[in-house]
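Give me a protein, keeping tokens residue-aligned:
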Amino acid sequence: MNKSIFRPVALAVLVLLAAAGWKLFFPHPEKVIRRRLTELAKLASFGPKEGQLAKAVNAQKAADYFTEDAEIVVDLTGYGSMKINGRNDLFQALLAARTQLSMVEVQFLDMNVVLDPNKQGAVVDLTAKGRVPGDRDIQVMELKVSLKLVDRKWLIRRVETVKTLSRYHPGPPPQSVPLRFAVYD
């Protein structure tokens, strides 16, 4: 009688362990992308106690999250538009920021990941929140991040600012048109 209960329970435990192992070693691409973007935000953030060597190493680690031909086009409130082409230019920009600023805090919030049908590419819409010393206001912007799968790693190939209603200023409003009503008897 004990053997008849033991086998199904052992089989169920084995199936659960196999499923947990599969999820651990082969996570869903959406989960991997979210984790990589969260890691990138941590790498882009730094404090005043970061040493010179650590600045260079962390700037390089952050740049390694991008493809060689990456393109970044963002509008920073109070700083204007910024365009960076390629991983090397990105590394130089990250290193310059780490050298010129005492600290930066970056967070990526509200990540909405959409995978391509072939699961070789993805687009992530997210809210980037950043703080720079000297600015009383927190920088908040909507970003569209395009990624592609390269050698089993999700790398960023394009980042662009999404024009939201708060950032979009379309010019003068259209002329008002009088409304006419028809009355039927």
